[in-house]
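hey so i finally got around to running both of the ones u sent me last week. sorry it took forever, my laptop kept dying halfway thru and i had to restart like 3 times lol. anyway pasting them below in the order u listed, first the sequence line then the structure token line for each. didnt double check formatting much so if smth looks off just lmk and ill redo it

first one:
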Amino acid sequence: MRYKTHIVSSLTLGAGISITLHYPFHVGYVLGIMFGSLLPDIDEPRSFIGRRSFGFASFVNETFGHRGITHSLFAWGIVSFFCLLSPTPFTIGISLGYLFHLFGDFFSVRSIQLFLPFHPFRPKLPLSYKTGSLSEDILFYIFTILLVYFVFILGHLHHYFILSSTELLDKMIHILVEIIKGVMT
């Protein structure tokens, strides 16, 4: 999957969880999902996140290859363990976004090795898509429509998102004012 499809599909699944479990669609949760949905591709230097990794993606790629260990439930477990040591909407979002990325790539033609490093099995599913193809474009538009439906119609999640965004902005302004006061005195 391309990065934009990973982001939109992960946000859609995250909105679905928010509606189902009545979990707040907090700005931190949304940003965490977006970041987490890109994180497994740190093993590809040409990926969206890889191009911004200051060379770390090249190291990971040379060590493990693309769609290797970073695309496994083992890696998701490690990331989730560290994220959930301090559970916040952001860290919960990272864990979910990472899992949703794996879910998306699992259904690609190439699939992923879910059980690395314990077993190299790579399932081939009858219902799959090819990255960059028309079928992925269709998935992108379906997920986009579902996301809009979940956020604005079904769950009215946009209200909480806007409220949490303004609260975050307010906190940032207060911190900035305190820093400026400290510098001026």
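and the second one:
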Amino acid sequence: MYNKSIFPMAAFCVLGAISSPLAAQTVDFSLTLEQSSNPGASYENMHAAGAGSQSSYAIGFQIEVTGIAGTPTTFDTPFASFCTELAEPVSTSSYTYDLDDVEGVASGRAGEIGTASSAIPAGGIGDLAAARVRALFDNHYQSTDLSEWTFSANSPSSQAFQLALWEVTHDVDLSLLNTSGSIYLGEQSSQSLTAGVALAQSWLDELVDVTTSYTSTTWDVWAIENVGDPGNQDILFATSIDSPESEAFSQYRASAVPEPSSTLLLALGGMLALVYRRR
């Protein structure tokens, strides 16, 4: 559960070829809070399957990538990032994470009864949720610079994005208000909180027609998962398509995948050798 001494984020975020399995690449990064003048908001009565009802602190934060697969990086700015799960902590210390597919993110404690992430399939959020995540980023991920996001009652873009992201990763009905859903929000006590829910729901309504064939148009979305500690938060952020940052992440991601043609040739070579020996 959420512990402010660790990171003041959320009550829940504490809220045709032969190939081998994809190997994750490590991403070393440090976490930094957004400016203190831009606080998040504590949304009340968040109901989550397997975890009851609590307040959920929705906020954006920044990560600074310092290395990929042991190679130091030279990125100029941090990346505005958001929680994938409802029940994991995030520490402000430097950690090593795996760079992973969006489809498989949040698999650490997914399906584990008694956690707010129990609604996520054990293998991760899956193809449809991943497509919806990419569409949400394309439509409403404002900037990699967190200072360009808004936190006001009239335009709570950071909080709304986090709420919408939680709904997409944990539920299929795309409704923060449906009391039959895997997660939903009860009545809020202030206009500011109500505005955040309304904005998030308007974005979720846009995702109804998104299918698994959706591909990113503006942002490449990256998932990172804590190495060796499934009790820590999995994180999503984005880089602009065709940017140097996207190219760097793509390069290291691709390096974890064996070339299908080479693997297939090796397999065929082995079969031919076996036939030759039998002759």
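quick thing i noticed on the 2nd:
The longest strand covers residues 25-32.
anyway thats it, ttyl
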